[in-house]
Amino acid sequence: MSKPLHRITVALAAAYLLAVVLIVFWPTPVDRPAAGTLHQVLSWLYRHGMPRFVNYSVVEFSANIVMFIPLGIIASSYFKNAVVGVIIGALSSCLIELGQTLLLPDRYATGLDVLANTLGAGLGAFSYFLVTSRSGNPQHSSLTASRLPPNATIVSYATSNGAK
After folding, report:
1. Over the stretch 64-109, which tens digit does the pLDDT of each residue have?
2. Could you tell me which of 147, 16, 18 has the C-alpha nearest to residue 80?
3. Which of 28, 164, 6 has its CA nearest to residue 104?
4. pLDDT at 139
5. Which of 39, 55, 65, 144 has the fewest Cβ atoms nearer than 10 Å?
6. pLDDT value of residue 38
7. Comparing C-alpha atoms, which of 66, 111, 70, 75 is closest to residue 93?
8. How far apart are the first and last CA of the chain?
9. 107 CB contacts (<8 Å, ≥6 apart)?
10. Following DSSP, what letter does each residue of 55-108 receive, concatenated?
11. Distance between CA atoms of 141 and 81, rounded to whole angstroms?
12. Could you write out the three-class secondary structure of 47-65?
């Protein structure tokens, strides 16, 4: 990667991380000012055929997924490992929810937020894996941290008829 492209990438990652920190540690729910507008948009969509199960909770859950997709990509790219990207997303989400519980009385920490954030990081890590596995570079396409020596042989033992 060229120096200017690297600098742009780092700047975008830093801006994204700053935005996430501001969103998750804002003293009040960030969607509070837009809640009325969101309900109006959902009502209009319902009148035009959108299924009723797509409610405010589904929109919020989906927004949490989307917010963590870049984190999965960034972490996976940095560590060159998709599994680590998912783990960092899950741990980050747990720390965020703990911070909201301890520091922000107007915010609500939930397990569903952790699930949605981890799913988002997983989607980002999976997209990293797909892109790097197509690049033909085996160092970047690995899902795990293990690196086999060039002369290593992988042996697989299979059983037939369910025998142990």
Report:
1. 999 999 999 999 999 999 999 999 999 999 999 999 999 999 998 9
2. 147
3. 28
4. 56
5. 144
6. 85
7. 111
8. 50
9. 26, 27, 28, 29, 100
10. -HHHHHHHHHHHHHHHHHHHHHHHHT-HHHHHHHHHHHHHHHHHHHHHH-TTS-
11. 8
12. HCCCCCCCCHHHHHHHHHH
For the residues of 109-139, what is the DSSP string, one character each? --HHHHHHHHHHHHHHHHHHHHHHHHTT-HH
Length of the chain: 164
Amino acid at 146: S
Phi, psi of 134 (to 5 degrees): -80, -15
Residue 2 corresponds to which tokens in the numbers above?
């060229």
Q: What is the pLDDT of residue 5?
A: 81
Cα separation, 64 vs 47, whole angstroms? 26
Q: What is the pLDDT of residue 164?
A: 46
- Measured between alpha carbons, how far is 6 from 19 in angstroms, rounded to an integer? 20
